[in-house]
Amino acid sequence: MAAIYQTAYPRIKSDITEDELGDVYTPTSEDKKFALRHCKRTSASFLGLLIQLKITQRLGRFVNLGEIPKVIITHIKNQCRSRVTLKDLQTYYTSGAKDRHVKLIRRHLNIKAYDAAKTSELAQIWALEAATTKEALPDIVNVTLEYLVKERYELPAFSVLERICQAARAEVNTRYYDQLCGFLESESRQCINDILRSSTGLNGFGWSTLKNEPKRPTPRNIHAYIQYLEWLTSLQALLPTDLGLPPIKHQQFINEAKALDYAELMKLKLSKRLALVIVLIRHQYAQTLDNAADIFIKLLLKMDRSAQKLLEKYLADHQKQTDHLISVLSGTVKVYLDKPDSVTAFDPVLGKNSDQLLQMCEKYMAFAGNNYLPFMVQLYKKQRSTLFRTIEILNLASATEDKDLLNAFQFILKHKKRRTEFLSIQSEPDDPSSRNVINIRWIRESWWKLVTGKSTKSAQVTEVNKTCFELCVFERIAEELSTGDLFIPYSETFDDYREQMITWEEYEAQLPTYCEEVGLVAGDTEFTTTLKKSMETSCRKADSQFPEDELVRIENGNLIIGKPKPDQPLPEVEEIGALLRDRLDKINLLDVIINVEKWLNLNKHFGPLSGFESRISDPELRFVLTVFCYGTNIGPTETVRSVQGVSRKQVAWLNLKRTTEARLDKAIAKINSEYKKYRLIECWGSGNSVSADGKLWDLYEDNLLSEYHIRYGSYGGIAYYHVSDTYIALFSRFIPCGVYEAIYILDGLLNDESDFNPDTVHGDTQAQSTPVFGLAYLLGIKLMPRIRNIKDLSFYKPDRSMVLKHIQSLFKEPIKWNLIEKHYADMMRTAMSVKAGKITASTILRRFGTKNRKNKLYFAFRELGRVVRTMFLLEYITDVDLRKTIQAATCKSEEFNEFARWLFFANGGKIPANLRHEQSKIVKYNHLLANFAILYNVNAMTEVFNQLKSEGYNITRDIMAEFSPYHSEHLGRLGSFELDLTKQVKPMTFELLVD
What we know:
two-stranded antiparallel ribbon, 995 residues, alpha/beta
């Protein structure tokens, strides 16, 4: 069911303002002339005709007198100076004149009557068309409404329209179910039936195990997960390449399938049951491929870290041996300098152990220059079978014409079972002049000697060390999977991202409009020329302003920025702060949730996933308890103990059956849009900027996402938030510890659905990456991170010949403008694809995480980023106010993190769920709860400030700017709560009495 307020269906507001009455319901001179042509001014018919006309102009349909608020009737009556009574109007609405006027109004407004037969048939066609690509009932209703309005039809009652759209959605979904079932041949249908014979199925694989997620990557767990992937691969082979589902329908069917247990699944009609299994198989196959690739990459990273630690231990343990070798070397050099007549003169130094000394030297030299790779070779032997098994099943493909790495993998796969130390790479091993069957020139210097035994790459190589070459190939595969040069067909994260770009035809057609929207110059030469001029201007401006800032100086070629003196707080702040804390009413978190829910009615966003389930009892109660349960981490069992009169099932049911990350994001966006209406937040910021920061959340170790984080010293994942300069968090995402956080910094701005629409993002030091700067610039986003190590950053010249008076020593090499101009089209197409939602910014930036000889686009984005970052750094060092703004913004992120963690107080702050999508939902529940509390606090603070102002206190915007909405002293987290959903709550107080 769709609530009318969720759609664009026109309705009369219950709280009509004077402005709305004047703008919408005031009869114009043309309206009055129309009415006078058919009625006398003093008659009830005149007033009735005008009322019908204005209501129909607003609603697109005719309504009964009882549906029209009296305030509208009174307003129209006053505007035409009528003395007609309400009783006269009631008589008019039951007379034949009213029906005649309906026809006149239709003709005047050029609208056609809604015919129950013909128009309904048209509406059904439009609804069916909308339902093919949309799932949410309000969206289908809105599309059908657009067609009705466009074709100038009178609107039917909302219930009629809703029934048509519901029937259309059911028909379209049934069509898709039948389509998916049609793909099944007898063999594949038999396999799915085997899955559905019981919840566990044959061989331990059934409906329950179909939704498996990987546990912590131990050898046993990896073995079991690869078996699961092999089973999914056998099922995947029975399905068509393309399921033929629109993305929205595909995701909807996935959500439904994940929410169903075995008993619920078996209650569905056969076609839907089979369709959901098919879609879930494809989804789980894609997810499992991603997870297997993650396991593969993590195993190699773990081996890399362990090898580095072993090298450190080796060097520490053999320090005495190293000292002895140095002693022998120095003695040998001294003997040599004396120019001895015979070799025997070295005997007192070398002794009888010269062979042993040589072995010690060679062993030491193997690890010289912090070369830890020999230790990786030792560790590799334990993981060899797992790595082979994983990569074999991933079915790797190359995104470039370079197939050397894949050929090398096929080579080691072919010789996997050979028991030999060295492998010949020649086509004819017995013929020294035969050609090599694989190209190994891609091997890096650090690996070259270990793999080939040769010191230089110019030497001819005819054989390779089998173990070292295998590990070298695997390490390179992990790198190229991360950069996108290798991809995994059918996966999600590791699929060929180039296929997700907009077409070149779309690029050519949309480029001028896109450039106009984001403020860029279209055309490769024009773009480069304009950007170069801007950079030259920035350099000269910064050079002229540099001496004016006493806090910034250059010493010995290094840039040093001093800290400004902190602003002294206003003397009234402490007094007002004490009054504020005293007047904020004590309230428990459950009542905070109830208050905000009464204001915003957010439970309506959490309808049934399928859209066809019956209504549940007490949806408001269940929503309130669910947010409290998972937002605080107290859990269903403890929630039932704290709140009387509810069951554990009631608490957990909404989360399992009706909640998705997307729906939580919509609820968060709704809160944020209401929050933006408060005038108080204008004291804290404009809302045009956000700061991005991550915080470690503890997880149990038994899942793939959990990873040990060196900086935090524990296992967990990172909750990454985008916090507005007005203190509220706009977007959140849960990511693994091991990833580079900055790649997600742009996603929050692009995915924000609230009314804020920020265009500036601040971040921590990680956000200084040049590709991030480059992509942000093309997306029209201003990236302004906090700078901690500015002396280590490079400034780039717009031109080698540029000479500056004060800051010349900061600059190093010039920008390669030809690289930007050459790859302009590729970069713009990438940015336009991100903006269009075809691919995420994080997916692109993940590919740019490492330098890559094949990916020319990386170097182009890096060069563009150098330009943008240099211009930002020049502004940063010459604008003390900008530095203060950035520091304040990043502090707000850190404060939000602490406030969110304060709310997530139960179970030691450790997320209990082991399923990845449940972990992400819990982080968003906490984000939602934090925004509940922030919204409530801003409302309460507005009331207090208004009270204090009316009592004569000196309340100014500067004073209010000193306070944040992260107050927690008045919020109760613990205790036995009484749940009262019947109590009335005061309306929201948006206005501020302070000028």
